[in-house]
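TEACHING EXERCISE
Course module: macromolecular assemblies
Task: Read the component lines below, then compare them to the predicted structure of the full complex.
Student: A.B.
Group: 4
Components provided:
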Amino acid sequence: MQKTAFPLGATLRYLAIALYVLFALFPIYWLIKIAVTPDRLIYTEGTQIWPSTFTLDNFVSVLFLTDFLVYFKNSMIVSLGTAFFTTLVATAAGYAFSRFHFRGKAIIIALMLITQMFPLLMIIAPIYKIMAGLRLLDSLTGLIIVYTAFNVPFATFLMQGFFDGIPKDLEEAAMIDGCTRFTALRKVIFPLTLPGLAATLGFIFTAAWSELLFALMLINSDDKMTFPVGLKTFVSKFAVDWGQMMAAGTLALIPSCLFFILIQRFLVKGLTAGAVKG
Amino acid sequence: MTAITLNSINKRFGPVHVLKDISLEFNKGEFVVLVGPSGCGKSTLLRMIAGLEPVSAGDMIFGDTRVNDLEPRDRDIAMVFQSYALYPHMDVERNLGFSLELRKRAAAEKKERTSHAAGILGLDKLLDRFPRALSGGQRQRVAMGRAIVRDPQIFLFDEPLSNLDAALRIEMRIEIAKLHRRLGTTMVYVTHDQVEAMTLADRIVVMNAGQVEQVGTPLDLYSNPANLFVAGFLGSPKMNFVAYDDPALNLPSALTNPSAQTYGIRPEHIKVTAPDKNAHLVGTIDVVERLGSDTIFYINHGADKPFVVRVPGIDRTAIGEKIGCQFQPEDLHLFDQDGQAISEHKNG
Amino acid sequence: MTMAQTSSSGNGRGRPLKRFQWLIEPYLYLSPAIILIALVMLVPLVVGVSYAFQAIDLLDPFTTGWVGLANFEKLWADRLFWKALTNTFWWTLGSLFFQFFLGLGLALLLNKPFAGRGLVQGLVFLPWAVPAFLSGLNWAWLFNPIIGPIPHWLAAMGIMEKPQNILANPDLALWGPIVANIWFGIPFFAITLLAALQSIPRDLYEAAAIDGASLWQSFIKITVPFLAPTIAITVMLRTIWIANFADLIYIMTGGGPANSTHIISSYIFTTAFRRLDFGYASTLAIALLVLLLAYAMLILKMRKHLVKGI
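Instructor-supplied answer key:
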């Protein structure tokens, strides 16, 4: 048998992997790079891979001189709220889809699929009017309600996949052992879906953290703005202070990336379980 | 006294009629095995007894209480699942004691009953393990232990041994038989394995296509099968069936019956003789299986299926040789054109 | 005996309740989802459809009411709509093509174990977690010739004469958001395809290898047929999402320069949000919905065919 330290195939594979990593990380790197570049060097050293001097001034001014912390807090409230309520509602619905056969199931699934199909922008105007009627315009609660509804269908299918991966025997055994269906869900099934719950929470958090257009439409006062909307105002307000914007962007990246890194393994697993079935 | 009465039980899944008018009575303390090919409805019936499937029509009665509308937890039953259904996030001790935990029993009682069950099944040293760290046989024991801790009125088993390898299966089979003798609880056991049915059961219920084919003690079913299905299902190797007009068949008129369409004879009830005119059937050996304890001949007599003969011990007759077969009249099973047994010259 | 009778008559009364419970129980779990989706999505959808036949222009509050098909006639004559439609096509196709093939490549690479795979998987999936508005801004930067590196690289490679901002060039500007979208969307395909790859039974490959199949043959004969149903459904969902995904374009070009980069969804948003012409925005949305539905039907038909093929 021939033994080479780096056979051609393996070398190419590692090269390809390295390219993917580079492509994925370079824009994020650039974001951080500009954030730590002193203002006076932004244009002169704009295209250099690393600035000659390094500064945290942009972070300091973003944190203390702008409304960044307000936006950040609002986004946290909205994203956590959305993630929590979506997961709660989707867990119940996913459980029903996974464990019951009932009349009307096909119709409900079809309706949920339709919600994934039409341009959400189509309902932006009616939602604006409805929210105005409910006096939920310019309110974080209104935003949480809307985001929760948007994310429930996908989260439901995700949770259904996780439930499908748990044998039905387990809760039947629990029901014979003395559980009601609900205690079986709480004591036996729920602990086993924790990874799935984590994945769904993280996925929805990230989605809510990113949403821009509905937030633009439904929020207009400064103290209610979520992060994307607030950042958008940086462009006009500060005559595009790039360094600050990128510093704010870097900070905004932290929660969603953290969440995502934690959950992405569960996500692949959850989808695998579902894929085996379908 | 009857433990379970099934009164015209029916089950429909939408348009599919899975169980048709099942009426049975199981006695208290009895070990009943439901046996049949896969898809015959035996597991569905067991799940209905457990309360996991609703009854479409008919009465399910435990003792003198109608339980159709009782939740599984209120039926005082325990069930051992094919997959064992151990709770993966609980250790063995908590798995065993979970039913008592749910009933909020005192810790001391829980401890006592758990260790009692663990003692019976030899699980004492495994109490702090999690199911993923157990072997197949150990998981099986935990599943049974969980049922024992419950001390239920009725034990239900849903193909509990089918995930075990052959040796372990025999071991656990004996274990279950001992358990039944020790506890004396009514047990209902579902399997598709006729050996399990024959060895464990006080009474066997043979099911096919959603209906009960025959109910009786193992030996009763073996000696007097009511129809072709039961005759062919129980016994290994299977009973031979020969059409009345098979040219290879040469029965003296004393043994024949004008309404018999099919003759059945078990492989172990055949005597090998010379292929002369005294032989009841003549054919050529196609395949021989020598098991040491027995020798099994597959004989080609011109029909689609080979005629199987089992003789005890080692028989050196070789492939290609022509042999004759002889049967005792009382071992011959006769079936009419509907496949029902004709029992006139039998003593059962 | 008396006892038995009482209990059985008691159960007789309980029976309809039990039936009822079996019917009702799943809906207890489903009702929050159903109510929420109905109120926030389905009702507005119906209302939205009705807007297309009305004049609802918040900037012009005096002409309101039902206008029949007037909005659709306007749509037919709207040159910007046709431009946006063409752009939608290229935007969706361009994004999807590269997202899919690069995502498939990544999934295949990640499907084989190597040292540091867990870390690599976390890193390459990261773009999916970057909020769209942020990646839009970020890529707008990368394309900016004063502070971004890409124009300089392109110039250095001789692809561009001198460093220019492609986002300012009406002929090329759409490719800016497309590149950003590719970057953003590769992880989605990689995740779903990786999940599908991991559910293909190993022994199939082993059997194929024993039968003498080359790597390429087992890819074509086993991997592709197994992935096909997942591919069909993911491609369909992604097409719809991409076609509806206006954020990147809105952030990076705002539809400009000279309205050259509007896709229908960004045009809808501008019409609703900037011009507050809800009636016409709904008309545009219906046009997009009809196109997407037709597309989804086609894919679902094809998927049925594919699934049968296995």
